[in-house]
Design a protein that fits this description.
InterPro entries: AKR, Aldo/ket_reductase_CS, NAD(P)_OxRdtase_dom_sf, NADP_OxRdtase_dom. The chain is α/β, with parallel strands linked by helices and 320 residues long. The chain contains eleven helices and twelve strands. Helix content is 35%, strand content 13%.
């Protein structure tokens, strides 16, 4: 794994997926275009977005400009977007994806994810009791039409994924979940590896920027106190040992677990820094030291799912 270029894993359909991508949650339209261009020029080939990020249009424009300039070809990129809770309601998925494709200025996405397993109406005032099986049937249909080269889920639990797999339709290619040093998701990773599903980590660095998140109305969410992954003493010690930053240690740790990840940044220097993880390797002892953490705390409980029949984290809420 000692290479200066992005490595890939292989989806169950034979498609390569880059191990490192640019996340764009909280990246406003007026800054995300520059971030995408910086990332692609730095060697990133995976760009991750979602309808609810409200930045697909700007991302599509930036990518199209780079293609026209000859910097990159569309077929060399891996574009992921996600269907929000209102878009997975019955009959809504294909029209929603068509709109995302228009905004992204492409004929297909490389990966389309169900952002949540819970369907709602457009303003999220009403829960729609549609099962994950019915949701997955819609993803199967858009995959078979070629609108998405691969399909997957985000924030689904293992039982929900198994229900989708048991339909014997298009398999779940990717599961994107919160996963970081202090929430390692060992059981979920083992389940996905058993079923040949690639796991993508979000919040790989512990999401220090989550506290700045603003709702569309300008309000802020309340976040429970949580330890900072990048302040972990073992992470700091390994950063000093390898001459790397704590962020690079955390990303390299995730890479060596056989996972993919999408760290978010709009800072060009940090985008480059996050990419510079292919020129060193953590030893077996280094990995063991990091995997010895006793902390396991989910940061994103997605409280709006509470009470929905497909609430993925209902069991966790009962333990609180």
């Amino acid at each position: 794994m000692m290479s200066g270029t992005p490595h890939s894993l292989t989806l169950s359909n034979g498609t390569p997926i880059p191990t490192l991508g640019l996340g764009t949650w909280q990246s406003a339209p007026d800054v995300v275009g520059a971030a995408v261009k910086a990332a692609i020029k730095a060697g990133y080939r995976l760009i991750d977005t979602a309808t609810c990020y409200q930045n697909e249009e700007a991302i599509g424009t930036a990518i199209l400009e780079l293609i026209k300039e000859g910097v990159v070809k569309r077929e060399d990129l891996f574009i992921t977007t996600k269907a929000w809770t209102n878009e997975i309601a019955p009959g809504k998925l294909e029209p929603a994806l068509e709109e995302s494709l228009k905004r992204l200025k492409t004929d297909y996405v490389d990966l389309y994810l169900a952002h949540m397993p819970t369907a709602f109406n457009d303003d999220m005032t009403e829960k729609i009791a549609v099962s994950v099986e019915e949701i997955w049937k819609q993803f199967d249909a858009i995959h078979k039409k070629g609108l998405a080269k691969a399909v997957g889920v985000s924030n689904w639990n293992e039982k929900q994924i198994k229900k989708a797999l048991d339909l014997n339709l298009t398999p779940v290619h990717v599961s994107q979940v919160e996963l970081h040093l202090y929430f390692p998701q060992n059981e979920h990773v083992a389940f996905c590896k058993k079923h040949n599903i690639i796991v993508t980590s979000y919040a790989t660095l512990g999401s220090p920027g989550r506290v700045d998140f603003q709702l569309p109305n300008g309000g802020k969410l309340e976040w429970a106190p949580a330890p900072q992954d990048m302040e972990d003493q073992s992470v700091k010690d390994l950063a000093k040992k390898h001459g790397k930053t704590p962020a690079q240690i955390l990303l390299r740790h995730t890479l060596q677990r056989g996972l993919t990840m999408i760290p978010k940044s709009t800072n060009e220097a940090r985008i480059q820094e996050n990419h510079d993880i292919f020129d060193f390797q953590l030893t077996h002892d280094d990995m063991a030291k990091l995997q010895g953490t006793q902390v396991s705390q989910r940061l994103f409980l997605q409280d709006f799912m509470e009470g929905h029949p497909e609430d993925a984290f209902a069991d966790e809420r009962l333990k609180k």
